Amino acid sequence: MQYEVTVIRFVTTFLMLSAIWLLWSGHTEPLILSFGLISVLFVMWIGHRMDKAADSPRAYRLGARPLTYLPWLAWEVVKANLDVARIILTPALPISPRLIRVRASQQTAIGQVTYANSITLTPGTISLDVRDNQILVYALTKEAAEGVESGEMDRKVTAMERN
């Protein structure tokens, strides 16, 4: 049984990494595909050597939840990009940089890192520190700070993390 689980994890990880590599690279030439295959196997080998693959089966239990979170995050990134572009193109618009602390309600380190990285991916905000279930965030504007403080992203990451 343990062997079957290990094989399933290996195959699933290999297929997911290969699909991501292929989508992101967009190349279908045999030489480039072979480099991609080598890259995927190298990453899997490093993961195995770090002993993380066996310790993190939780990632395989997320199911389709990331498929609902990622489009929402992409839309938030687009909206924030437009806000930052508007600020850059209209110098008269005031900025009000600030540091804020927000609570991270995720129960795992991976959940908190996902939340912090989601904040950083959103233009106009950067996660500076994660400590004691709190994230120190730099926000370019008052509106960006209020967006993070609203807790919507925190709730969505927490919902994605739950079993």
How would you portray this structure in words?
The chain is mostly helical and 163 residues long. It folds into 2 domains: 2-61, no CATH class; 65-161, no CATH class. The chain contains 6 helices and 3 strands, in the order αααβαββαα. A 3-stranded antiparallel β-sheet has the order 1-3-2. A hairpin with a 2-residue loop joins strand 2 and strand 3 (134-139). Helix 1 packs across helix 2. The protein is globular. The two termini are 23 Å apart.
Unreliable stretches covering 5 or more consecutive residues: none
Distance between the termini: 23 Å
Specify the overall morphology.
globular
- Secondary-structure-based class equals mainly alpha
User: Helical amount among residues, as a percent range?
Assistant: 55-70%
Largest sheet: 3 strands, antiparallel
Regarding quaternary structure, how should these chains be classified?
single chain
Strand/helix succession: HHHEHEEHH
Arrangement of strands in the largest sheet: 1-3-2
